[in-house]
Amino acid sequence: MASLSFLLGMIPDTEKVETADDQLRADYQAYKDFENSDELKHYLDLEKEVTSSNFSLRKKRIFKEKYKNSEAFRKEERYNRLLARQRGDERSKELEELEDYINSEEFLKQKQYLTMRPAERYETTEEYQKETEYHELKKSDQITWFFRTRKKYPFRELEKWNLTFEDNFQGNKLDTSKWMTRYYWGDKTMDSSYVLQDDKSFITDGNNIEFYDRKARIVTRAEKTEGLMWRAEQGFVLEQFDFTSGLISTAGSFRQKYGIFRAKVKMGEGSVSQAFWMVSEKMLPHIDVARYEKGRLYSNYFWGKGNKPQKSISKTAGKRYEGDYYIYSLEWSPGKLVWKINGKVFKTQTSGVPQEAMYINFSCNLKKDAHENNLPSAMEIDWVRVYKLKDQN
Fold first, then answer.
1. Contact yes or no for 281/391 (Cβ under 8 A)
2. How far apart are CA 389 and CA 256, in angstroms?
3. Fewer CB near the terminus (10 Å): N or C of the chain?
4. How far apart are CA 78 and CA 73, in angstroms?
5. 176-214 pLDDT, tens per residue?
6. Residue 70 and residue 74: Cα distance in Å, rounded?
7. 326 - beta bridge partners?
8. Residue 307 burial by CB count (10 A; 0-12/13-18/19+): exposed, middle or buried?
9. How, if at all, do strands 235-245 and 161-167 pair?
10. To the nearest whole number, what is the mean pLDDT of the chain?
11. Topology of domain 160-389, CATH
12. Tens digit of pLDDT for each residue in 36-86?
C-alpha cells in the first residue's frame, strides 16, 4: 500500500518537477559551454594580469611619474640653455636636433602625458583599459552566474550519469530503430503479434500508435480484427476481436541492467489496463514501473521461478492519475529498486532485485472483465529517458 501522502494526492507538481530538471540540465550545458569559451579565457587572462604584482608595480610607476624626472624634460632644459647661449644666427648641430625634437609630435604627447594629474594620466594607459574591462566583466551577469554556480556546483549528481536511451517523439511516426510494436516473444518466434488469454483487445502491429503535439499515443478503440491469442491448453489460436490496442517495446534495440528508467506519461480514462513496464528474456522478473487499471495505480514486482512467483504489489487510488501527466521512474541499483512519481518515493524493494538486463515496454490492453466504456482511450507518452552510472558496468 502506498503512503498516505500518495493517497491524499500530496505529490510534487509535474510541471515544476520537469521544469526544475530541464533547467538543471540547461544550466549544466550553459556552464560547460561557458567554461570552455573564449570569453572566460579572456576574463581569466585579464584577471591573472590585473591582479599580478607586476601589474601593481606598473600602475604605481605610472602614478609616480613626473615630467621633471623624464628624458623629455632634460632635453627641453638642454634646448633652452643652448638657445639662451646662442650668439648670432649660427646654430649648433645639437641645438638643431633638440629643436626638431621639441617640435615633434612625440615630445608634445610625452609632455602632455607627464604633466597631467596622475589619475587622469592613468586613464590614458593600456593598464587602465585592462583594469576597467576586468572590473566590468567581473560584475557582468554571465561571469557572476558562472562563479556563483561553480562555488555551489549543483551538477555533482547529474555528472554521475550517462544518458543511454532517449525518445522525445518529435516526429510524426514511430522510430523503428528504437521500438518494436509486438511482444518480443511473438516477434522472435513467429514474426507476429499476439495477445494473452485474458485480453479482449488485440495488439495491432503499430496501427494503434498515433502521434500529435510531439507525443506518442497508444490508442484502444472498438474495432473488429483477427489475430493470435495464446491459450494455455491450445497454444496460439486465431481469434476474432472487437477491440484493438497497441504496444511499443525496446526489446530489439535496447536493454540495460541498473540505472534510472523514467517516462512522462498520461494515463487515459476508462477501464483500459495501461502500463509502463520492464521485463527480460523470460517472463520473470517483471517490473511494473506504473500500471493503471480498475481505477488504481500500481507499482508491482514479480520474480522467482516456476508456477508460484514471488510478488510485491503497491497501489494507490488512481483517478487523480487519469488525464494528467506524471513522471514515473524506477531507480535500479544492485541491491535496491525504488519507484518514484514526480521524484517522490512511492515504493522500495530490496529482495529479489533483478541482476539481468531488461527492456522497456508501454502497452494498453482491454481485459476480459473490463468495462467497454470511454472508448477510444489513449495512454500518452511525452518522453522516455534512461540513465546509467558512468562507473557501472
1. no
2. 11
3. C
4. 9
5. 999 999 999 999 889 999 999 999 999 999 999 999 999
6. 7
7. 265
8. exposed
9. unpaired
10. 94
11. Jelly Rolls (2.60.120)
12. 999 999 999 999 999 999 999 999 999 999 999 999 999 999 999 988 888
Give the separation between CA 333 and CA 339, rounded to whole angstroms: 12
Q: Which three cell numbers stand for residue 207?
A: 496501427
195 by DSSP, 3-state: which? strand
123 phi and psi angles, rounded to 5 deg? -65, -15
Helix (H) or strand (E) holding 207: none
CA distance 305 to 320: 35
pTM confidence score: 0.85
**pLDDT surpasses 70 at 17:** yes
Amino acid in the structure at residue 391:
D
Pairing of strands 201-203, 235-245: parallel
Angle at CA 133, nearest 5°, toward 128 and 135?
A: 95
**Of 57-61, 109-113, 149-153, 275-279, which range is least confident?**
109-113
Q: How long a stretch of residues is the chain?
A: 393
Q: Which of 198, 304, 201, 179 is nearest to 248 (CA)?
A: 179
Q: Are strands 344-349 and 359-365 parallel, antiparallel or unpaired?
A: unpaired
Q: What pLDDT is stored for residue 2 in this prediction? A: 59
> Which residue blocks in the chain are alpha helix, DSSP H?
4-7, 14-35, 38-50, 53-64, 71-85, 93-102, 105-114, 118-122, 126-138, 141-152, 184-189
Q: In one letter, which amino acid is 110?
A: Q
Describe the strand order of the beta sheet including 296-303 as a list of residue ranges. Answer: 247-249, 359-365, 273-279, 286-293, 296-303, 310-317
| Per-residue b or e along 6-40, where b marks 16 or more CB atoms closer than 10 Å to that residue's CB | beeeebeebeebbeeeeeeeeeeeebeeeeeeeeb
First to last CA, the chain: 33
pLDDT at residue 76 in the model: 92
Q: Find out whether 357 and 127 touch, Cβ atoms under 8 Å.
A: no
Phi, psi of 219 (to 5 degrees): -100, 130
Average pLDDT of the residues in 320-328: 93
Q: 248, 179 in Cβ contact below 8 A?
A: yes
